[in-house]
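Holo model, copper (II) ion. Inputs:
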Amino acid sequence: MINLRERAHLVPVVLFASLLTVGPLAGQSVLDRTPNLSGGWTGEEGTVYFNFLHRFWRVDVADDEKKIINSPTFLVGVSLPGRVLLGLNYASNSLVDGEEFNETEFYGRWAFLATSAGAPVDVAVTAAFNEAASSGDFELSLAVPFGPVTLHGVGRLLGQVAELDDETGWAVGGGAVIRLTDGVAFAGDVVTLGDRDIAVGDGTHELDVAWSAGLQLAIPATPHTISFHVSNARTSTLQGSSFGDGQTRYGFEFTIPFTLSRYFGSRQSRSTGDIAGDVAAEVTMNDQLRYTSETVRIRTGQAVRWTNTSSLIHTVTADPAKASNPSSVSLPSNAQPFDSGDLRPGDVFTHTFSEPGTYRYFCIPHEGAGMVATVIVSG
Ligand SMILES: [Cu+2]
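Output:
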């Protein structure tokens, strides 16, 4: 059981850590997954993650006395080149270990197909060692996008299902994420063990099909995401998220990315675009999801130079085909659409304007947050 007084000293540490950190929104988010299926999530390369999941429920401890129990899972992971995530999950009040109640899972994940890299689907493998169950566990996951809906499926092979049970088991599950906007999604899933009778503690437990349903949110102008959800599973390890029981739990998961390049800054910045014209205006892109000059005025044949001075990925995009809202883009009738592509921290993009008129452009990751600005080119 969690004694809040004992843990209270952690609160300022966590709050302070969350204030310090800024990282790319892309690839880190609960918006890409369901509460109980991590799927192919491997984060953003060069980023350390500290995600915390808490699920609460109430139990009777005596006549007229109830107690709130909390089962937290802490994820620490590092995202490496090649879409690899290495890390561990630490959970307490777990069902997986009937005696210690604590559960540690060490895992490595490789997303060998990724829609972010142009593949039609996301496919990933996860290999894990669950110390509480003394079990080598394995997952194959598939995610298929259909417009704003992504369908998820997993198959799991569990070396030894929970402690004290010698049997190898398997589990299958499926879920869906429905994106309403860039920053809001609904998600849910179900996972079942092949055999839901497991030995836990001093007896046999008949488990339920595990399920979850949640509201997944990006927190505006921060790199954090949060999931508010309900589930009948306690922990988010491969085993823990396969175990449902008769108890509905209310929980949240909060994600904290630490961008290593921010502290060790070894990456070379890149300059792209066309530099035919004189640079007549400079615009920077900041951590508050804004172009620092909302309107710049230049003459035909001159160029604008954009610099990403933030720790996030931004774009300079004047292409109606890439906008979710038509009012984010406008181009003079003779002008060609343009797009900088992803501009990482420090990157520079230059564009020369050869047609007079008004150009309205936006940032692809932050269009929904209102990251839109204008260039007015006089004749
Ligand atoms: Cu942006």
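The helical segments are 4-7, 10-20, 260-264. Residues 289, 314, 363, 365-366, 371 surround copper (II) ion (CB under 6 Å).
Archived with the compound record.
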